[in-house]
Design brief:
- With 145 residues, this protein is an alpha+beta fold.
- It has a single domain, classed as Holliday junction resolvase RusA (60s Ribosomal Protein L30, Chain: A).
- It contains three helices and six strands.
- It has helices spanning 37-50, 82-89, 135-143, and strands at residues 9-15, 24-26, 33-35, 64-70, 109-116, 124-131.
- The strands form two sheets. A four-stranded mixed sheet has the order 1-6-4-5, with helices on both faces. It has a two-stranded antiparallel ribbon with strand order 2-3.
- The longest helix has 14 residues, at 37-50.
- The protein is globular and about 50 Å long.
- The relative contact order is 0.26.
């Protein structure tokens, strides 16, 4: 196993996740929920792009900020994409789960910004994870545009 390099700012282009409202469904005759086919398909798309994330840099277990760019013509509310994107960036908790391991746990997310951005394809999104020591500078740089 190779050691993943630390990077203070990491940007990835990913497939647009389904809305969190359509990511889970109740099992018939049960109070338990399961991942929908759309959510499982998205997880597979991410896995095909980045595998287990072993070749990606990581922030580690330190506080970070998450910036999400979505296409202006993406369907749905922008806040409904955050949870699935946040979850895919973390290290898997259990066997069988998929995560890219860029962060250890999404409880370390201390900052969040989501916006519509020209130049992003409707079925894609761009996520940037920034270590909290670089987050304020990253936000200021992005807001100056």
């Amino acid at each position: 196993m190779t050691k993943r390099p630390f990077q203070s700012v990491i940007t990835l282009d990913l497939p647009l996740p389904p809305s969190v409202n359509s990511a889970f469904a109740a099992r018939r005759g049960s109070h338990l929920t399961m991942k929908t086919a759309g959510y499982r398909f998205w997880l597979q798309e991410v896995k095909e792009l980045h595998g287990r994330g072993d070749n990606l840099p990581w922030i580690g277990g330190r506080p970070y900020g998450l910036w999400i760019d979505l296409a202006p013509n993406a369907r749905g509310d922008i806040d409904n994409r955050v949870k699935l994107l946040s979850d895919i960036l973390k290290r898997p908790d259990k066997p069988g789960q998929h995560g890219l391991g860029i962060v250890v746990d999404d409880k370390e997310m201390w900052g969040l910004h989501v916006e519509l951005c020209e130049g992003i394809a409707r079925d894609r999104c761009r996520v940037t994870v920034a270590d909290m020591s670089t987050w304020p500078g990253y936000v200021c740089m992005r807001m100056e545009v």
